[in-house]
Amino acid sequence: MSQSVYQKVMKADFEQLPKGLRILHGVKQEIVVTGLCDITSGTHWSSKMIRPLLGLPATETQARCKVVITPSNKGETWHRTMGESQFNSQQWAGDSLVFEQVGFSRLAFQMVVEKGKLHYQLSKLSIFGLPIPQFLWSEVRAVESMKNGYIHFDIRANGVFSHLLVKYEGLLDKVTSDGTVVWEKEGGPNES
């Protein structure tokens, strides 16, 4: 495997990412990142119905989180554990978009680097293979950056008519597949 999903899609823009994000998104072998995050799930009836179908996490404060990224010739498998919740996704490269399959939904993101942050801009959404008009999904926002040597992530997904599905934000350390911590700062997300 010559290039990661993100390297294929982002091309020269990939090199504009901070080193930690280049390591995370330039994976050639399985890696594990761990940390803590705060999760807020939507309370509207539509959110309560959709969130479990997609396997999205429930509300929890300072939840331990773990992300296992496994690259293959077809793309990457992301297995996320956030507190008591687990969900998987498949990511692969399109011509100019990163595609992600989460449960019954397929998302397509344009990747934009701005001021050292990676912004995921949702371009397309389909559920059960049916395209969903933008006014129904209103907002899916994801931003990754480096914060005091940690990977900082801030993800928000609004569903039908702008009702919150889930929001999760936190910090991650990078760990290799054999469990060796590659970078860790004192007082970081894995400190008890």
| pLDDT < 50 runs, ≥5 residues | 183-192
Helix content: 10-25%
Number of strands: 12
Q: Describe the largest sheet.
A: 10 strands, antiparallel, barrel
CATH class designation = Mainly Beta
Oligomer state of the chains in this structure: single chain
Give the name of the CATH architecture.
Beta Barrel
Determine the strand fraction and express it as a percent band. Answer: over 45%
Number of domains: 1
Structural class: mainly beta
Question: How would you describe this protein?
Answer:
The chain has 192 residues and is mainly beta. It has one domain (5-173): Lipocalin. The chain is built from 4 helices and 12 strands; from the N terminus they run ααβαβββββββαββββ. Strands 1-2-3-4-5-6-7-9-10-11 form a 10-stranded antiparallel β-barrel. Residues 183-192 have low confidence and may be disordered.
Keywords:
ten-stranded antiparallel β-barrel; single chain; Lipocalin; mainly beta
List the helices and strands and how they pair.
Layout (H helix, E strand, L loop, with lengths): L4 H6 L8 H7 L5 E11 L3 H10 L5 E13 L2 E8 L2 E9 L4 E5 L2 E10 L2 E11 L2 E2 L2 H4 L1 E9 L2 E9 L5 E13 L4 E3 L9
Antiparallel strand pairs: 1-2, 1-11, 2-3, 3-4, 4-5, 5-6, 6-7, 7-8, 7-9, 9-10, 10-11, 11-12
Please provide a brief summary of the model.
This protein has helices at residues 5-10, 19-25, 45-54, 134-137; strands at residues 31-41, 60-72, 75-82, 85-93, 98-102, 105-114, 117-127, 130-131, 139-147, 150-158, 164-176, 181-183. It has 192 residues and is mainly beta. Strand 7 (117-127) and strand 8 (130-131) form a beta hairpin.
